Every structure is written in structure tokens, then in C-alpha cells.
Amino acid sequence: MLDYQQQGKWPAQLDPWQSPIKINSAAVQRVETTTQPFKVITPYHFESVEHHGNNLQFNGSGKVQLLGRLFEFKQLHFHFPAEHCLNDRIFPCEWHFVHQDMIGHLAVVAFGVVPGENTPALAPLYHSFALTEGQKKSFSLEIDLKKIVAEQTSGFYNYLGSLTTPPLTRGVEWWVAAEPLTAAQGQLAELARPFSTPNARACQPVMQRPIRLYTTENL
């Protein structure tokens, strides 16, 4: 199991552009375009869930088009607390939808989560599940990500970074929702209950890399 208390001992990164990062909305580049940079092509279908020791991974399929390139959905997992820091705020939880294109490039769509109203489309995910580390079982769910994206009225931040767990793969394209989703406090507690320690990587230096904001006008 990955030890988040010993992040300094993780394998050395090969590229300084690492994730997660702190995002300051006042310092990002707003993008105006006549094309649609973020387009959900199909609903997301989940087939299984597996226990990774400090996380659950939900496996499935789906398709999204990012800046004109087709990506296949691979898996969804969470972090407590959130990994990205938005305008000096770290949300209690963050979901990561991990995608891959036909030549192996990775793209992660991230949503922070705060206590509030239940989001019905995601409600089946907020369970502790009767699994131990290494176990896997069937899990059936369909999520209409297109509807969730359409409700992001403040848009998505886009930047180039890495995976947030070893091997810290570089060249990962990130799309971070500017506004958090909501879940009932009990749902968040139930999801986190089997995991005794945080599983979030510390924020990494931005290193003057470009961060762009795509708003709903062009989503």
C-alpha cells in the first residue's frame, strides 16, 4: 500500500511539471475559442470496483473528446482531502476520472467535492464496499458525465502535469473543475470510513507552466 506519510521517499520525478498544483484563478489564461474543447461522447459505464489499500478504483468505459482528441475512460478513484488547491481552498474530497488516448497519452478530469446536497448520479459511489486490499468485485453503474460537465458554470482549468502516485508519469493532461460537486456529509464519511489516513499528494511547484480556463461559453 502506498504510504502518503512518506511522500519524500517516493521515486524521484523525471520532470518538474508535477501534479497536483495550486491554481489561482486570477493568474490563469482565459481561452476564447469557437470550437468545443471538452465534449463528452458517451455515458460512462462502470463494471467493477477494486480495493487498492488506501483507495477504491472504479473501472469502466466511456468516451470524451478533449481539444479534438478522443480519449477512452479507464477508471475513477478519489482522494481525501482533495489534491488540487483552488484559490487557497482545499476541498474535503476529489474525484479523478482517468482517460487514455489511442497512443497512450493520459488525461484526468478532476472534481472537488464539498458537503451539501446529494448528487444523485454519483450516489452509488459513496459506499465503503465490503472489500479488503487486493479484492475486486462487479459494480454496475452508468453516469451521464455530459450533464455533470454542463453544470460546471465556471468551467475547467487545463494544464499539463503528472500522475499523483508513483510512477508519477509525466505528460498528463489535467482538466480540473472550477467549482466543486456536492455530497451529503454522511456520504463522504461512508466513503472515507475504511481508510484511516489521508491519500492526497502534496501540491507541487507550478514552475511557470501555462494554466488555461475554459468556461461554459466554449464547453
TrEMBL record:
EC number: 4.2.1.1
Family to which the UniProt record says this protein belongs: Belongs to the alpha-carbonic anhydrase family.
Pfam family, one: Carb_anhydrase
Reaction catalyzed: hydrogencarbonate + H(+) = CO2 + H2O
Organism whose genome encodes this protein: Liquorilactobacillus ghanensis DSM 18630
Keywords: Lyase, Metal-binding, Zinc
SMART domains (alphabetical): Carb_anhydrase (SM01057)
UniProt entry tagged with the keyword Zinc: yes
Protein name in the entry: carbonic anhydrase
Leading EC class: lyase
The Alpha-carbonic anhydrase domain, residue ranges: 1-219
One Gene Ontology MF term: carbonate dehydratase activity
Parts of the chain that traverse the membrane: none
Presence of the UniProt keyword Metal-binding in the record: yes
PROSITE patterns for the chain: ALPHA_CA_2
